[in-house]
Give the backbone structure.
Amino acid sequence: MEDFTDNDAHNYDNYDDDIVMGVNSVTSLTTCYKSINGATSETVNEVTSEITNEIISEITSEITNEITSETTSDITSEITSEATSETTSETTPRFTSPVWEHFSLLKKERKAKCDHCKGLLSHKKGTGTSHLRRHINSCQKYKRLLSNPNGFNSGSNGQTKLRFNVNRTSTKEIVRKDVADMVVLDELSFQFVEGWGFRKLIRGLLPDFIVSADSIKRDIMNTYNKRKSLIKNILQNVEGKIYLTCDCWTSLQQLGYLAITAHFFDKEWNLISIILSFVLIPYPHTGINIANCIKAEVDGWSITTKVIR
């Protein structure tokens, strides 16, 4: 029920004024009728009553029609506004989750359609997207798409999305190699890969990827041995002589370390410098012990005859 406003009260006052004016007009007309025709009081009263009732009926009918029209218009406007608001809210969802790259929303059916297997999943307003994520993780067509070297996929917005041209196994190998490189480049501990923060990150990117500190250590040592073989081959093919520089220092734990760097010119006379070794010097840190460390490293790199003495 609509509230009765001051504006409505003002309109009713205007209607009352119309009725009073109508009655006054009737009284004037009947008085004139009586004076002209010499009618009796009963006749005048009869005519007055009929005319008054007729005028009141017409005015009341007009008032009722006007009020009904205004009320209907207000209700219709309010219903239309609410329906439009609800429709807009339902038909313009917020695609904030990355999972919508693999689904299309069917508004009328309240379903989410997988762009890969065309399967339909229930999706009502406020239900979340965890069930959609579970589906895409188990979707066989999506898995085959990942392993397809020429795989393309059309997203929900109609744009073609290029997938990585690697399968799941090779993805793990690449990530593992990148993690080993990160540990070396950023001088991180092997235990870094077993930390909660790193595991949470990897779980979100590659859920079935598991790596331990020992695995990363083995990967780094394997990489070191492969690159050592390449550098050894370069050193043995140097046409000139190789110069060595050494640097020694003692750590806070009173441990002595020795770094050995090789310098030589290539065929274009470019100066090349390569760190060959970073080793622990046995105590005591005498000249003889340092010389023995240098000789052992030079022999290990097979460049004894090429080093300037």
Notes: The two ends are 108 Å apart (CA to CA).
